[in-house]
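A.,

Following up on our hallway conversation. Structure tokens first:
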């Protein structure tokens, strides 16, 4: 088992301030029920760490370049030994140290599906679920976007394209990009323009009027670099960006599957856990000006790529973020004891 504290580089300052005792890594069992297949994937992931095929590396903070962190969790919901930190300068919650980009690539190619995706994924039902998400996004953006031609929409992380399909039902032209060929193939059968790859790799000759990232940025190693690529595609002052991420501030209040349990939201596939403020920082650094943003976190911004900048530092803000996380944990502990007993442990 790695000692993340002692492995921090000399110019890093790191302390352990766990949200609660159950955030320690003690093989105490997962926070969510796991199938046999998930348990196998968990074991395989731990083996990759133990055999040093995957290496955890400390990074300065994405937003403020800071090197002062508090480790708030030493495990995730699957009881994997991955640390989560809060930056003690800007308050960004992040996986740190975390795997190298190549390790993540390998993880997504080999273990991610077994750990995160249902064994028998019902693609038509998944597509319908994506359409319902499209309906919600369309409602959020109703007054901002003209959904008719010649509007062009680019969705990054499109999956099977159900969301894109819904957004384009009044004639806007859509392009969806993602990596998983089985999802893409399903959407292509419905005549959607779905392409395999990342935003910087594909030759997208059109300038999109709207780019959609739903539950994508929290998986990326460098969401600022990603957003810079996105804003570079847009016309300055015109291109719109819709970003939605799971919001750490909304864990207790938003209707969700996690029942107010912060531990259930911590997962080794997530590199960042955004609040309204930390996502705003990342959007601004990526070259976007924010029009509106809420705690869920959903946001609409406009591309101003030549104005991309470092954000002002939010010194001491981490105290408020950490207090918020502790309050979420306290509320959960006060109300969910019966709920927890029903969860199974890994075999
Ligand atoms: Zn920071």
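Then the amino acids I'd put at each of the 347 positions:
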């Amino acid at each position: 088992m790695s000692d993340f504290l002692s492995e921090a580089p000399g110019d890093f300052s790191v302390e352990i301030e766990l949200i609660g005792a159950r955030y320690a890594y003690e093989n105490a069992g997962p926070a969510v029920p796991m199938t046999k297949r998930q348990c196998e994937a968990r074991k395989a992931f731990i083996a990759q760490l133990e055999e040093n095929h995957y290496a955890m590396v400390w990074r300065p903070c994405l937003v403020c370049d800071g090197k002062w962190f508090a480790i708030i969790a030493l495990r995730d919901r699957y009881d994997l030994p991955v640390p989560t930190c809060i930056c003690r300068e800007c308050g960004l919650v992040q996986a740190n140290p975390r795997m190298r980009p190549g390790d993540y690539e390998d993880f997504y190619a080999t273990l991610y599906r077994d750990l995160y995706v249902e064994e028998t994924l019902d693609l038509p039902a998944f597509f319908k679920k994506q359409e319902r998400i499209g309906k919600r996004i369309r409602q959020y953006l109703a007054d901002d976007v003209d959904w008719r031609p010649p509007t062009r929409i680019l969705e990054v992380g499109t999956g099977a394209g159900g969301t894109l399909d819904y957004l384009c039902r009044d004639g806007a032209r859509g392009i969806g990009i993602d990596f998983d060929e089985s999802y893409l193939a399903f959407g292509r059968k419905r005549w959607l323009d779905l392409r395999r790859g990342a935003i910087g790799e594909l030759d997208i000759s059109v300038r999109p009027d709207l780019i959609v990232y739903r539950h994508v940025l929290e998986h990326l190693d460098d969401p600022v670099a990603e957003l810079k690529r996105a804003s570079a595609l847009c016309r300055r002052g015109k291109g719109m960006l819709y970003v939605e991420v799971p919001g750490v501030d909304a864990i207790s209040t938003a209707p969700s599957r996690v029942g107010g349990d912060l531990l259930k939201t911590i997962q080794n596939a997530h590199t960042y856990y955004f609040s309204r403020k930390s996502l705003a920082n990342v959007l601004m650094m990526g070259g976007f000006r924010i029009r509106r943003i809420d705690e869920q976190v959903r946001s609409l911004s406009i591309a101003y790529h030549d104005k991309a900048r470092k954000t002002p530092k939010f010194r001491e803000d981490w105290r408020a973020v950490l207090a918020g996380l502790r309050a979420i944990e306290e509320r959960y502990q006060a109300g969910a004891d019966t709920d927890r007993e029903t969860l199974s442990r890994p075999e």
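The longest strand covers residues 68-73. Curious whether your intuition agrees with the design.

B.
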